[in-house]
Design brief:
By secondary structure, this protein is of the alpha/beta class. About 40% of the residues lie in helices and about 20% in strands.
Length: about 325
């Protein structure tokens, strides 16, 4: 068996920054720390921090007054920030800067009296946070059919924004339908789908025809990881989204000669290596790592944590 190992894969700069934020907080304050929602959408990462004593919550009512609270990489709404202040929580913002960019765009266009069409998945943490910036101005759509149901006129001031972790192709289908219905609709100055999402999708599209089976390391609630699996399925390949080697099924490999492996932007490299080792041991797999694009993006820690680092040093 041959394994095509995609590069780039795994952690993006925003996920790296968010995890570093939590690790730095643990060093500074201990593990009696709360995180609003999952720090990133990955079971391995969340379980690792939970085992150390970090508490992940879905409601701020679960956080005692005066506690330390991290906002996850997916961002939060102004309503959550206001509630945190009311509860006298010490907050540290681990929101990915690319998500913050979309929030700022929503605020800017809402102040300019635009109707904002947000392309994204209903209920996703990032979408909830973005819509919270200007709920009276934002309408959510997910598919071209949703666009057909919009009631705006050609004279309305319209702009579209997107969730950062969408399938590029699916987002483009919605954008094309928007432009057909509303030729004057405006777009963000720079596309919202993040570089890492785009690069990982590009790698799958480029390599998938050489493989019989696609394995995506990532959790079921990870939007960008699901999109990678869906690309493989759309190409007529077997494709599975798994959290780790324990979910591998022997029957998947019965007639397979070439396996492609990648990882979503919130999946740690350790789970990739565990799967590779398993395939080597069980099937004598050989590994060929193929780089389709170079990545060198990094994001600094929030200012407050950088200051704490400096004081400690």
């Amino acid at each position: 068996m041959k394994v095509l190992l995609a590069n780039p894969r795994g952690f993006c700069a925003g996920v790296n920054m968010a995890i570093e934020c939590l690790e730095e907080c643990i060093r500074e304050f201990g593990t009696n720390i709360f995180v609003y929602h999952e720090i990133v959408h990955n079971r391995y990462v969340v379980e690792k921090f939970s085992s150390q004593g970090v508490k992940f919550v879905n409601h701020l009512s679960e956080v005692p007054a005066g506690s330390i609270l991290l906002y996850s990489a997916h961002g939060v709404s102004p309503e959550i920030r206001a509630e945190a202040r009311q509860r006298d929580l010490r907050t540290i913002d681990a929101t990915c800067p690319l998500v913050t960019k979309v929030h700022l765009e929503a605020i800017k266009y809402a102040k300019a009296n635009y109707n904002i069409i947000l392309i994204g998945h209903d209920g996703h943490d990032e979408v909830i946070g973005t819509m919270g910036e200007a709920p009276e101005s934002i309408t959510l759509v997910e598919t071209p059919d949703d666009v057909d149901q919009l009631s705006f006129s050609q004279d309305d001031s319209l702009v579209y924004l997107t969730q950062t972790t969408l399938s590029v192709e699916e987002a483009n289908l919605v954008i094309e339908r928007l432009k057909q219905r509303y030729p004057n609709i405006e777009s963000p100055p720079k596309e919202d789908i993040c570089y890492a999402t785009t690069n990982r999708q590009h790698a799958v599209k480029q390599l998938i025809q050489q493989a019989d089976l696609l394995l995506v390391l990532g959790s079921q609630n990870s939007s960008n990881s699901k999109r990678l699996m869906e690309i493989g399925l759309a190409e007529g390949k077997q494709a599975y989204l798994i959290d780790g080697k324990d979910e591998l099924q022997p029957e998947w490999f019965e007639t397979v000669e070439t396996v492609m492996i990648t990882a979503g932007a919130s999946a740690p490299e350790v789970v990739v290596q565990d799967c590779l080792n398993h395939l080597k041991e069980e099937y004598g797999a050989t590994i060929e790592e193929i780089t389709t694009r170079e990545e060198n993006v990094t994001f600094p820690l929030p200012k407050e944590l950088r200051q704490l680092q400096s004081l400690r040093e």
